[in-house]
Write a structure and sequence with these properties.
The chain has 192 residues and is α+β, with helices and mostly antiparallel strands. It is built from four helices and seven strands. The strands form two sheets. Strands 1, 2, 3 and 4 form a four-stranded antiparallel sheet that branches. A three-stranded antiparallel sheet has the order 6-5-7. The longest helix is centred in the N-terminal third of the chain and has 31 residues. The chain is flat. It starts with a helix and ends with a strand.
Length: 192
């Protein structure tokens, strides 16, 4: 029994360490996202800094702009620069396979309501998430927050579970109200 408790504590500590590294890298990378700044420089910085701090990239740094909802990654030699864009920076760090995944919206476009809606939707989902709650309730909290700004959520993307070496695992967390869903249980790790 002691081994199992110790193992859970070790796993939790690895998730926490990945999260600690991710928080530092994300904050530093956000400061680099400026009109005229290189997308490739940001992506390379994220990966290099993650390793410097003792983690490993869980997936390539994603930098999506404007209508690109997700999963855009600069390629080697990419010369794209930030304009007056709405930017989503999505990065992941793992420690021994245990992944922390975070995205942040950066407004270079002057549409601060989109940024506020995204932040409030995340806060509402986090406040709602606990063992015994259906993922559909998280989706409803997200959608309600976004719609309060007169905006529509991106519904063809979802949050998701994280597990050892799996950056996209079950359960799926919708960005809109759905009936039912998956019942959250203690120990679930989510990217919302």
């Amino acid at each position: 029994m002691t081994d199992n408790v110790s193992n859970k504590q070790d796993i939790l500590e690895k998730y926490r360490e990945a999260g600690r590294i991710l928080k530092i890298v994300r904050a530093e990378a956000v400061e680099m996202v400026k009109v005229g700044g290189s997308l490739l420089n940001v992506a390379e910085f994220v990966e290099k800094r993650t390793i410097e701090l003792g983690g490993k990239p869980a997936f390539p740094c994603n930098i999506s702009r404007n209508e690109e909802a997700a999963h855009a990654t600069p390629k080697a030699g990419d010369s794209d620069v930030f304009g007056k864009d709405m930017v989503k920076l999505d990065l992941g760090v793992h420690v021994d396979g245990y992944i922390a995944d975070s995205a942040v919206t950066i407004d270079l476009s002057g549409n601060s309501d989109i940024l506020k809606a995204a932040e409030e939707a995340l806060a509402a989902a986090i406040e709602t998430a606990k063992p015994g709650i259906l993922t559909g309730k998280l989706g409803a909290a997200i959608e309600d927050s976004i719609r309060s700004y007169g905006l529509n959520p991106v519904t063809n993307l979802t949050g998701h579970g994280l597990s050892k070496y799996e950056a996209h695992d079950n359960p799926s967390v919708p960005n809109k109200h759905v009936e039912g869903g998956v019942l959250l249980k203690e120990g679930d790790v989510l990217a919302i």
